[in-house]
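Subject: Interface between my chains keeps coming out wrong

I've been trying for a while to get a sensible model of this assembly. When I model each chain on its own everything looks fine, but I need the whole thing in one frame so I can look at the contacts. Pasting all components below, labels as-is. Any help appreciated, I'm running out of ideas.
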Amino acid sequence: GAVVSQHPSWVICKSGTSVKIECRSLDFQATTMFWYRQFPKQSLMLMATSNEGSKATYEQGVEKDKFLINHASLTLSTLTVTSAHPEDSSFYICSARDMAGGTDTQYFGPGTRLTVL
Amino acid sequence: GQNIDQPTEMTATEGAIVQINCTYQTSGFNGLFWYQQHAGEAPTFLSYNVLDGLEEKGRFSSFLSRSKGYSYLLLKELQMKDSASYLCAVMPASNYQLIWGAGTKLIIKP
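Reply #2:
Try treating it as a single job with all components included. I did that and got this:
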């Protein structure tokens, strides 16, 4: 149980284009999902908290107009990197909060590696 | 402020036992988590402690002392595939977001 998928696994795009990343909880419902970014050999950095049916909460320094988050259902959240630039190249990882069975645990998707040329 | 400390790097021998420590100072406490992250991959959940004591799960065990703000992850019968970063994270009572440690890179030698 508690499987989270992400799509695509990797993507290469041209500078100025937009990229959408999907995060799905496959066997549980997640009212809350999180989006992280991780640069090589660095720690996870929380970008935003995505709540089903409401606006995402962004961390300080993360541009909400650049990183659009939509959490339209209990099993799907999307992150769209708009007008991507080379400095946006990173490893983007989502996690979903599973509160079933008395636990409160975040399970991670496999991540999406974005390269902007 | 909120702070989580864990060693940057540790080295151990295949077949041995290693203990990775984590100390935390947070505004509240609603659980401590350990994750494993292999290079180039996303973290995978290992354990969750909310009460004091030891939680055992196969070769991995996790211990928590809330009064000391301390936890450790114990890995037994080390295998080469255990080479990874181990992340300690705390959920403060007031917020379901996780506060993350920087991770401990564990190197296993034959």
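Reply #3:
Confirming on my end. The longest strand of chain A covers residues 90-98.
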